[in-house]
Amino acid sequence: MFYRPEEGHGLPHNPFNAIVTPRPIGWISTRGADGRDNLAPYSFFNAVAYVPPQVMFASTSTKPDRGDTKDSVANIRDTGVFVVNIVEYAARDAMNVTSGALAADEDEFVAAGLEKAEAQVINCPYVANAPAALECKLTQIVDLPGAANKLVLGEVVGVHMRDDCLVDGIFDVTTFRPLSRLGYRDYSVVENLFSLKRPGE
Known about the structure:
By secondary structure, this protein is mainly β. It has one domain (12-189): Roll (Pnp Oxidase, Chain A). It has four helices and 14 strands. The strands form four sheets. A seven-stranded antiparallel β-sheet has the order 3-2-6-9-10-5-4. The chain is globular and about 50 Å long. The relative contact order is 0.20.
């Protein structure tokens, strides 16, 4: 099968998200200029550089009470900071709660029953029990083609790692089983690892 996206695929559901998988989930926490906290998952997320460490996520829709974007991007645009929380399998239901379209004045931490902690370098909350959390300062927001597509890039200025996830000096993802996004309504969990040496190593 071949299709041109502008002409449609003719399938019951868009296959694009199912093709580009698995995708890590950036559980983005922000604090608005008004002091209200927000938490939302984004599966268009990844690390993009080592030195300095940098991450990105993209928001692709709007909310009626936020105009041209959603709460996360609006808050980051106002404050210049955010936290990326890593999602473990045990937090899948709480993460799903925070994906709902709550009003801008509603706190997803409260709705999902999640404990907050305060970031150390920036003014922002994070998920207290997350396996890891990356405190970030905004470097740029890029308007992408499309009505509401915005790419957010940030520099990581603080890193939290849960103590039980460190094994012999290694951040061991099997201790918490990170969640990843597939297509449609599907998710996966990382449970099995293998290693490959690069040529010449």
